[in-house]
Amino acid sequence: MTSHDRQARAAASTPTAPAALDQPAFRALFPALDSGAVWLDSPGSPPGAAPVTDALRSVLDAWSDGTFEWKAWDQASVACRPLIADFLGVGVGSVALMGSVAEAAATVAASLPPGRVVVPEQEFRSNLYPWLALDPARYDVVTVPSRDGAVRTEDLVSALDDTTVLLAVSEVLTSNGVRTDLPALRAATDEYGARLFVDASQSQGVLRLDFAALRPDYVAVHGYKWMLCPRGAAWLVVRPDQVHRLAPLLPSWHSDAEYGYFGGRLHLQATAARCDTPAAWLPWLGAREALRVHACLDPASVERHCLRLAAVFTEAARALGHPVPAPGEPSHVAVVRHSSATRLAREFTAAGVRASVLPDRLRVGFHYFNDDSDVATALAALRSAAAA
To answer: 376: helix, coil or strand?
Structure first.
């Protein structure tokens, strides 16, 4: 553990949330739900949890009246490292602190040896463009097209060869709600000696990822989705044997093994903290509280609850004549097709349902604060739209 992290352990040690949270207690942390609103737009961003928004208000008050301590603020991001590590079940030295998934992907991209990079053609752009920007003289970037609305595992595997250095995927892509078969992709990349990069922004906070079993080389998470953090707090988890292969994209005083501000020669930290990018204070002050909330949840209960709600919604929507647009393992994000965006948006708004109504499909996401009444309200709005 570095000197940075030793200072942070104490700052992260006292949770402000209750010792344990069941589903009703977790739901009660979200003031936006008090009015009866149904929030199914967590794939975009969930509403703020009270411990997080209260912390941010306190920070703004301290900033306004001049009672804040900027050194304490600066330690907030570092204090999040052990909280992230504990939540994910990885070592503290495996976590690098970032501002976005794009930064995480670009950091890995900058350290890759020449070779083939494979990525789905319709991947989210933060996990697509950093690879497409690689020098074509040194890298053969292969984009794998979708079939029937989703990229197939067998197509990704077929794109790998002996020159492949990396496969990049999202665990869940919200354009279709399909959960990627990561164990199959890990087996395939192992066969070719390639690395596996996973964007888990749309899964962490709901779905469990067994790092010990999967052994991903890199996992990037932007915490403003299901992890309840303010936007701007993200992290890159690096498998221990890959840490030495990475260099910081933006070297700064946080990159150095010796704590200090001025002068010196860069001696990179031995841990993934070498790749930390300069942290914005406010997002990480909020992230610290969000991570403390997650520490009070039972991950198995969260996953089971959210997958059940999504399955109930999907099956009922299919029975109403709304097909699921892509085959594959379902997740907590449900995507179904519809024939009238105007009618559907009107009915959902009237029912107080917050969701993403796209021209050809409806996307809803189920967090642990959602319950069966939310599913019933959304399905009633779906029926009303069909009858209009």
So the answer is: helix
